[in-house]
Amino acid sequence: QVRVVESGGGLVQTGGSLRLSCDASGTMSRFFAMGWYRQAPGKQRELVATTTSTGSTNYADSVKGRFTISRENARNTVYLEMNSLKREDTAVYYCNARLTQYNIDYWGKGTLVTVSS
User: Fold this and answer.
1) What is the per-residue burial (b if ≥16 Cβ within 10 Å, else e) of 8-46?
2) Using one digit for the tens of pLDDT, what is the confidence trace for 50-73?
3) Deepest in the core among 5, 36, 49, 91, taking most CB within 10 A?
4) What is the rounded CA–CA span in Å between residue 47 and residue 30?
């Protein structure tokens, strides 16, 4: 059974940094792509960053150069290192585990990141 749990959100000042963690138990890294998405108040959920089972990464233009996604396959964990945070980064951040062969998505409940000036 796949279980996805995010952690690491919180309140940070503009220009600060946070690291989010996602524990995806029940997954096997070679079958799953992992990603981070976010949803700001009144907006649709959007892609932040993804990483494939082989380590290829993809980022939204709005976070390129500031955010880094990484995965630790042995621990079924994915991270999102966020630097130079802006107020517009404020959102609930969701971790996604996708069983790539069948395009089946598993989601966590989200962790709130609030960036204040």
Assistant:
1) bbeebeeeeebebbbbbeebebeebbbbbbbeeeeeeee
2) 999 888 999 999 999 999 999 998
3) 36
4) 21
CA-wise closest residue to 100 among 17, 10, 5, 30: 30
| In the predicted structure, residue 16 carries a pLDDT above the cut 90 | yes
Amino acid letter, residue 86: K
User: 80 and 19 in contact (C-beta within 8 Å)?
Assistant: yes
What is the rounded CA–CA span in Å between residue 35 and residue 49?
A: 6
Query: Can you tell me whether residue 89 is helix, strand or coil?
Result: helix
Instruction: Give 58's strand partners.
Output: 50
E-strand spans in 40-116?
46-51, 57-59, 67-72, 77-82, 91-99, 104-107, 111-116
User: Measuring CA to CA, which residue among 106, 80, 84 is closest to residue 93?
Assistant: 80
Predicted confidence band of residue 106 (pLDDT cuts 50, 70, 90): very high
Query: How far from chain centre, in Å, is Cα 65?
Result: 15
